[in-house]
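Treating backbone geometry as a discrete language has practical consequences that deserve illustration. The sequence in question and its structure tokens are set out directly beneath this paragraph.
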Amino acid sequence: VAVGVSKKIHQISSSSQTIVITHLLQVSAKGDHHFYVSKYVEKGITKTKIDELNKKEVISNIAYMMTGENPTKESLALANQLIESLK
């Protein structure tokens, strides 16, 4: 189901701007651009930071999503395989 959702979102994005926030690996792996959103506190004020991820960071982030732990060589390879299979 998640692969079908990712393909539909990608189809929609060909004709309009689409921003997706997801924890689904298949949806994330299909994205063209990836951003990491984080929050931090500075002088008692909560702020948000958004960083665009490069390909290596995308693979690492998806591998982390798979395991919930620091990525291993195997989870990185599987994340890369998932991204390549959804192109």
Q: What stands out?
A: The chain has a mean pLDDT of 93. The radius of gyration is 14 Å.
